[in-house]
Design goal:
Blueprint lengths: L6 H33 L4 H30 L3 E4 L5 H22 L4 H22 L3 E3 L2 E4 L2 E4 L3 E7 L5 E6 L6 E2 L3 E2 L5 H11 L5
Antiparallel strand pairs: 1-2, 2-3, 3-4, 5-6, 6-7, 6-8
Helix pairs in contact: 1-2, 2-4, 3-4
């Protein structure tokens, strides 16, 4: 059974969480930039590059670990809903960025900082490609979208909206995804099958 979502309230909650994460990243990088520039007597530009390295590599490692763990825990595919119009554009962007990132990596090979910055630039199209290749799928242990597994027990409700009433909005209590998530486009011909699986696998009361 699905639960009704207060759309305006939940979207506001989700927006606040996203903005808080973004503000937190900006504050952390700004603080690191200042500390690096002050203690190591470097320019602001060098401080920004070093702070980007300090933040970027742990983020990429976290992304890879989270992606691999989600792949292992997702289970078998119950229904493949394909990719939206945005994802092919993301794949194209990653393909276009990859040669430039590889060239930057080798041209920055002159010193240690260059290698680290080049590696960071190389990670960007890789992350975009991984996310763009992951379409919407209903899997055994949850919903798989953009290289992320949202487990059944983490979904607290859902509703349909948008064109042909075929955009799925999920409500979640998962950290980083609390509130109502962005609409997931579902092919109209697959809506009934998706709805049946949601009613079957969501916890009682969802």
């Amino acid at each position: 059974m699905k639960v009704e979502i207060n759309e305006s309230r939940e979207w506001r909650e989700n927006g606040n969480a996203a903005s808080q994460i973004l503000i937190g990243i900006v504050v952390i990088q700004g603080t690191l930039t200042f500390l690096i520039s002050y203690f190591f007597q470097t320019s602001i530009g060098d401080g920004i590059r070093y702070s980007g390295i300090i933040i970027g590599y742990p983020f990429f490692c976290w992304f890879l670990i989270s992606w691999i763990r989600s792949l292992r825990n997702r289970g078998s595919t119950l229904l493949d809903c394909g990719r939206s119009r945005v994802e092919p554009a993301g794949i194209l962007l990653a393909i276009l960025l990859l040669p430039a990132a590889v060239m930057s990596f080798f041209t920055m090979f002159e010193n240690g900082q260059g290698v680290l910055m080049g590696g960071l630039l190389l990670f960007t199209p890789v992350v975009i490609l991984i996310c763009s290749l992951s379409g919407l799928q209903i899997v055994e242990n949850g919903i798989w979208h953009h290289a992320t597994l949202l487990r059944w027990e983490e979904i607290t409700g859902y509703r349909w909206t948008g064109e042909a009433n075929s955009h799925l909005i999920l409500q979640s209590e998962k950290i980083f995804f609390k509130g109502a998530l962005p609409p997931l486009p579902v092919p109209p011909e697959q809506k009934a099958a998706v709805n049946e699986l949601l009613q079957k696998y969501l916890p009682a009361g969802s």
